Amino acid sequence: MTPRFVLGRIGFYTLIAVLLAFFTIPLLWLVTAPFTSDPTYEVRMPDFTWENFRAVLEHPYALPSLWNSLVLSVGTALLVVLMAALAAYALSRVRLPGRDALLYALLLLSSIITGTAAMVPLFQLAVELNLIDSQLGLILILTGGLLPAAIFMLKDFMDSTPKSYEESARVFGASPLQIVRHVVVPLVRPGLATIAVWSIANVWGNFLMPYLLLSDVEKQPAAVITYTLYTEGGQANLRMLSTFGLLYSVPVVLMYLFVSKKYGFRFHGGIKR
C-alpha cells in the first residue's frame, strides 16, 4: 500500500467519524438529558431522576398535544393512503393520453409549490371555507399537499402486480371493488405501509401549517407546543424540552421499527419476479 492510499483511507475514516459524532451527540443528549435533574447543553451521565417526566405530565397541554399530533397524523395518513391507492390503481390500469406526463407534472408541482410557498392562498381558502381552527380542515390541507407524491410512489407498486390475478377474480364474478380489496390491496400492502409511515412522519413533524391554522392551544399538535416550552425570560426550558422531545420522538421511532420489521420498505410490489 502506498502512503497516498493510507492517507486517503485515514482521511475517509476520519470524515466518517466526524459525521457520526455530528449525528450521534444530539441523540445522546436527547436520551440522557430527560433523566438529568439539571440538564445543560452538554452530554453527561444522568442521575436518573423522574422529576422531568412528572413536570411534563403536569403541563396542561403537553400530553393533549401528543394526542392532537396522533389525530392529525393518522387522519391524514388514512386519507392519503385511501385516495392515493385508488388514483394509483386507476392510473396503472387505464391507458390515458398523457398519463405519464400528468404524473411527472403532479410530482414537479408538489415539489415546487410547497406548503410554505402556498401559505397565503391556503390560509385564504381556509378562511373562505370556515376551516380556521379546525383539525379536519388542517387534515384536508395536509392531505392535498402529500397526495401527488404518494400517487407517484404508489403507482410503481400497482404496476408490478400481475393483471392475471385480477382477470381470474373477474372470471369468478368479483366486482371491481372486491378485486381491489381482496386481490390488489394484499399485493401492494408494503407500498401502502410505506406511504402511511411517510405521511405520518411528514405530518408529525409539521410546524408551519398547524401554527397558522390552529389558534386554539388545546387543538395544537406537539410540534407547535414544543415552541412554547420556554421560561418567562425567554430561555429554553431544557428540562421540559428534552423530556418532551424524547416523548415526542418515541412514537415515530416505534412505528418505523414495527412497520419495517413487518412489511419492510421496498419500492416494488408484492410479487417477487
UniProtKB/TrEMBL annotation:
Belongs to the binding-protein-dependent transport system permease family. CDD domains: TM_PBP2. The gene is ycjP4. The keyword Protein biosynthesis does not apply. Keywords: Cell membrane, Membrane, Transmembrane, Transmembrane helix, Transport. It comes from Nonomuraea coxensis DSM 45129. Its main location: membrane. Pfam families: BPD_transp_1. It is a multi-pass membrane protein. The chain crosses the membrane at residues 12-31, 66-89, 101-123, 135-154, 191-213, 240-259. This is Inner membrane ABC transporter permease protein YcjP. SUPFAM superfamilies: MetI-like. The keyword Transferase does not apply. Residues 66-259 form the ABC transmembrane type-1 domain. It is found in: Cell membrane.
